[in-house]
Amino acid sequence: MGTCRGVGLTCAPCPLHPTQVGAAAGPRGGAGAAGGLRGAPGRSPAGAEQTPRAARPGPPRGTEPVGTAAGAAAAPGPPCRAPCGESSRQLQRFFTTARRRGQFPATYCAVTVGVPAEAEGEIRAGLRWQQQGDTTAVVPVLYPGRHSLARKEVKSTLTRYRVLGAAGGCALLQLQPRTAFPEQLPVHLTLLLCPALGDHEHSSRVGRVLGVPFLLPPEAAPTRTQVLDEELLSRLGLSPQQLRRLPLHLHLQQLMLPRGGLLCAPLPPHFLRTLRLLGLPEHLVPAGTPPPQPAPPLPPH
To answer: pTM to 2 decimals?
Structure first.
């Protein structure tokens, strides 16, 4: 089993509330990712396509978002009878207790640019917020000190991954975050040297020399539109101008809830379209995902 030291998630205000579960959103992460439930580790609740975001302040010290995902509509549920704030606290306690018991309430899938060297493994890294110019960003700390962890300046994070299929230099991954931190999944995939397709925020940290990927420090890799080679662009049917509109392919598929409840989010059309174009295995996606529907072409500009 391989281990990589190096992830991104988002926060769902109240995954139990039908108006919030399945809301559309934009990346990081997947945290705002492409299609899914926004409510597991990542950027936000079951969500939708994500686009590069403007500067945002870091969260208060000590806070831990429930998670994020890429967006599709979640299965309808009963109305939330408790105030959203109370529901969020109950879910946070549930997720914390589940992780301590070795349970993993959230399951994601992602299409990555690059194929991990190991078929399955773990990605571990400390994560923290860092000021970069006028913005703040989540950056990895590969070897955090005990004092920085104790002061909660750095959060120790862990994600398990499994390769479901690979084709054309891309892979379909299943992800199970065991911790929750903003941007965890996108950052972890970058540390794996396999950034998520459509990640226009973190993918610039992966450089290449003679086709061999290597990790760049965040300070040397400003945010930019993801760079794809001509062959991959051709397979996806995209022009360089359309690439900046490509949504993040990070999707929260399943979210376990208290009392045995389970939320499932079908893959969005653009995610299914990408699987077909790349020849990745749609049949390995969990049951409940509807047949692929034609996705509208991206606008030319």
So the answer is: 0.66
Is there a contact between 227 and 244 (Cβ–Cβ < 8 Å)? Answer: no
Q: Are 185 and 41 in contact (CB under 8 A)?
A: yes
The encoded tokens of residue 117 equal 């060297």
Token pair 């109370």: residue: 86
Residue 189, C-beta contacts closer than 8 angstroms, at least 6 positions apart: 7, 8, 110, 112, 123, 173, 195, 196, 199, 202
d(CA 111, CA 81): 36
Structure tokens at 42: 């990542």
What is the per-residue pLDDT across 38-62, written as a single tens digit (0 to 9) for each?
A: 333 444 333 333 334 444 444 433 3
Close Cβ partners of 276 (under 8 Å, ≥ 6 residues apart): 282, 292
Query: What is the per-residue pLDDT across 200-221, written as a single tens digit (0 to 9) for each?
Result: 999 999 998 888 899 998 888 8
Query: Rounded CA gap, 181 and 208, in Å?
Result: 28
Report the distance separating Cα 208 and Cα 205, nearest Å: 10
| C-alpha dist (Å) from residue 192 to 152, 155, 171, 281 | 24, 18, 12, 21
List the beta bridge partners of residue 254. Answer: 107, 264
Give the amino acid at 258. P
